[in-house]
Design brief:
- With 153 residues, the protein is of the alpha+beta class.
- The protein folds into 2 domains: 4-68, Ribosomal protein L9, N-terminal domain (Ribosomal Protein L9, domain 1, 3-Layer(aba) Sandwich), CATH 3.40.5; 70-151, Ribosomal Protein L9, domain 2 (Roll), CATH 3.10.430.100.
- The protein is 34% helix and 35% strand.
- Strands 4-9-8-6 form a 4-stranded mixed sheet.
- β8 (129-138) and β9 (141-151) form a beta hairpin.
- The longest helix has 32 residues, at 45-76.
- The termini are far apart.
């Protein structure tokens, strides 16, 4: 039976796993292909401990980011933003209000920066009224704001 080695993948490998994974491979495959091509390194105890420390650091950072997102979502949930617009006939706006306008208001009023694609709602807004807009912060955290489109005074 062939000897196996534990190796740390340095690059994604279709059949083995993703970069950073520790996998078992045959000794010949490791020595003749993975090591010479820089695709893997021998998974010594030091390498494994270093990888575990890096994983713990990444996990801690993700948890802190999640806490931060949840704090922002809790603070801004059900906030109302009023946007003034020119009215054409009755409730129809002269033009429309795109998601970018909401993004700009969030940045100006709350110093919140998110990608435009994370602003979800019935855009563009073309009538007077109140609309519910969902803002996605990441890691599954989102909050709802009410956007009141009012006529210019």
């Amino acid at each position: 039976m062939a000897n196996t080695l534990q190796v740390l993948l340095l690059e994604d490998a279709d059949t083995l796993g993703r970069a950073g994974d520790i996998v078992s491979v045959s000794e010949g495959y490791a020595r003749n292909f993975l090591f010479p091509n820089g695709k893997a390194a021998l998974a010594t105890k030091q390498v494994q401990e270093k990888r575990n420390a890096k994983d713990a650091s990444i996990k801690k950072q993700a948890e802190e980011e999640l806490k931060k997102h949840q704090g922002v979502a809790d603070r801004l949930e059900n906030t109302e933003i009023t946007i003034s617009a020119k009215v054409r006939d009755g409730e129809d706006l002269f033009g429309s209000i795109p998601a970018k306008t909401i993004l700009e208001r969030l940045h100006a009023d709350f110093a919140l920066s998110v990608p435009l694609k994370n602003i979800k709602g019935p855009f563009p807004l073309k009538k007077l009224g109140t609309y519910t807009v969902v803002v996605q912060l990441g890691q599954g955290v989102e909050f709802h704001i009410a956007v009141l489109v009012a006529p210019n005074a």
